[in-house]
Predict the 3D structure of the following.
Amino acid sequence: MIEVDTLLKALPRRIKVGAYDWRVILNEEEADIEKCGEADFEHHVVNLWPSHLNSPDHAVGIVIHELLHVIFDNADLEGNHTSPDPEEEIVIGFEQGLVALYRDNPRLLTWIKKGLK
C-alpha cells in the first residue's frame, strides 16, 4: 500500500472545479482545530493537513469531501429547491459536478485510483 506522504506528493496542485481552478495546499503547521481539510472559497484553495490524514483512503476521502463542498456551492444546492423532488435536484447537481470534475481533471482520477488500491 502507498504511504500517505507519497500519495499527497502526487496530488495535482491545481484542480478545475466548475469555472475555476482551485489550488491545493498541504499545510504542515497544525490547524486551530483537528481539521483534515478545508475549502477556502475566498481564495479558491483546498487546504489539507497531512498530519491528520491517517491512511491513503482517508486522504482520498478528504480530498473528495472538500471538492464536494465546492460542487455543492457551485451548483447552489443550498438554495431554495422549487422542484417537487428536491432530492433529485440535489443529486443532479452532484452528478453534473462530479462528471465535470473527473472529465476536467484526469490526473485527479488517476490519483484517486492510486490512493484506493
